[in-house]
């Protein structure tokens, strides 16, 4: 069971988690449409290859809180969940995966958390974090092969990004009880922050995500057959 979480919501959302953390999301175009199309085509490919797949949104314009997204994956007891984002403020050299474990320094992993003071919430699920770390490294490897550029396993930072809660872990990953890998890619195209990604860039990203999920969560006795051409055809039809 794979859960795919296309980033952003059709309207701004401000609510509170049970720990009092601000659950904040907002519309962001063209990213919102791009990553929904990419996620949908990855889902189609995974299903064709024998996986069960749930998307956290039915349409690009749906508004779903980060709490609800995590709950969808938790209820499904997902073997792996992935968030799919792109950043039109970053050039294509920026490619990243983020796990629930962070990045080790001399073999030591940091405390993963969001919030300050009484709201500070720590992700304290070592087995889930370890599985997330493993999957993030595999997805980064497969994305690099499909996209033809290095993909780093990084640690996020939400410090100084008000109104977002400070910390080093995406809120949806913090609230999840299942392994979750958050994905980003630089989407600045031709110097424009509003120009849609090329079909080739979307295809490479989608193919890397699909191959990464299938390598991280293999189905015994089966191998994937969804090709880059299949994904390109799917994305072309959605444009």
TrEMBL record:
UniProt KW keywords: Hydrolase
Segments forming domain MurNAc-LAA: 2-213
Pfam families attached to this UniProt entry: Amidase_3
SUPFAM superfamilies: Zn-dependent exopeptidases (SSF53187)
Descriptive protein name: MurNAc-LAA domain-containing protein
Natural source organism: Microlunatus ginsengisoli
